[in-house]
Amino acid sequence: MSGSREIDWPAWWDWELELSSHILKRRIDRGFSEVDLRRMMAAATRVREDRELGRWVVESVHGLRPWEVIVEPDARDRLLVVITAYPGEAP
Hints:
Radius of gyration: 12 Å
Shape: globular
Helix content: 10-25%
Mean pLDDT: 91
Strand content: 35-45%
Low-confidence stretches: none
Strand order of the largest sheet: 1-5-4-3-2
Number of strands: 5
């Protein structure tokens, strides 16, 4: 994943993605594919801590709308687990 290099990306940013069972169901419900998800990650504009400890919110766009992707780094296996993704709020 590339994203803008102006952002101080976390050390886990370039780890391989692993899709949770939750995201596999939600992507169908919310109308995006794995390719769309990978594009969202590549187009990320910001990463911030989530309310749930150990999880992060990746801010991005999909279909010209803001989206948020929730991820959880797995340091043991060096994987970035994608928990869910949903449309965000317009700025």
